[in-house]
Amino acid sequence: MSDEPLLYHSSDGVALLRLNRPEALNALNRALTGALIAAVERARRDEAVRCLIITGNGRAFCAGGDLKEMPTLSPAEFREYILLLQRLSAEMRRLAKPIVAAVNGYCLAGGFELAVSCDLRIAAEGAVFGLPDTALGISPTSGMTYLLPRIVGMGWAKHLTLVGESIDAAMAERIGLVTQVVPAAELERRARELAGKIAAHPPLGVRHVKQGFDLAADATFGAALTYETEAETACFATDEVQAALRAFANRKKGS
User: 17-34, pLDDT tens digit by residue?
Assistant: First the structure.
C-alpha cells in the first residue's frame, strides 16, 4: 500500500478517493486535507469522472482531526487549518458531480463533517458515528451547522452535537444520516454500484439535480422554480435527452 495520504483511482466514470492513514484512523491532518482538495479538483477537470466515492483504508472512515498535530499548532496555524477544512467542504459542495461517502468503521468529529459534506452516505453495519468535539470544548466547522440540520433536522443536529454520544449505523439510517446500511464486506461494491448508477445518467441532468437542491437550500421557493425551469429546459435541449425520450416513446408504442 502506498504511503500517500490519499489514494485516487478512476474507472467507469467513478473516481474512488481512499483516505490512507490507517495507522492514525485516517485522521485529517493538513497533508490529507490538502490532498482531498487536490483530488476534488482533479475530478472536476476530468470529464470522464461523473461521480466520486470517498472511503477509508483500515478500521475507520475518518476519526476526525489529527489530535497529534493539532496541539503543535499556534492559534494562527490552527485558524489556517480550519480554513483549509472549510475550503474542502466548499469545494465538495461546488463540485457539479455527486460524492458518495462509503462509511467504514469510525466516522467521528472531522470525519463526520467530511461525510456530511458528501451528497449521499452509505454505511457498513459496524460503522460508528459521533461528534465528541463538544466534550473537548470544540465547536463544529466545515459548514456542519448549515449542512447537518438539512440532512437530519435541527433537533437531531443539536442532539448529536451537544450530547456528543456515538450512534451506530442502524440509528444513522433511522434519522436519515445515511440512506443504506450494508454488510461491511459489501460496502465498497455497493458504493460502486450506487455511484455507477449515477455515473450512467446524462451528466447535465445530474449536475442540475445536485446544484438545484443546493441552490434551493439557500433560496426562496420562487428562485428554486426559476432555476428548475432553466435547468430542465437546458437538459431537454441536449441530444442525449432527446434520444432517450424518443426511445421511451417508441417503447411505449410497441408495448
Answer: 999 999 999 999 999 999
pTM for this model (two decimals): 0.89
Q: Cα–Cα distance between 178 and 1 in angstroms, integer? A: 29
Q: Are strands 99-103 and 120-124 parallel, antiparallel or unpaired?
A: parallel
Contact 54, 8 (CB under 8 A): no
CATH 1.10.357.10 for the 6-200 domain, yes or no:
no
Residue pair 92/40 in contact (Cβ under 8 Å)? The answer is yes
CATH of domain 203-254: 1.10.12
Model confidence at 252, in pLDDT bands (50, 70, 90)? Answer: low
Would you kindly state where each structural domain of the chain is located, as residue ranges? Answer: 6-200, 203-254
**Each residue's pLDDT tens digit, 47-62:** 999 999 999 999 999 9
Whether residue 100 contacts residue 52, with contact meaning beta carbons closer than 8 Å, is answered with yes
Q: In this structure, what DSSP letter does residue 255 have?
A: -
Question: Is the separation of the CB atoms in 78 and 97 below 8 Å?
Answer: no
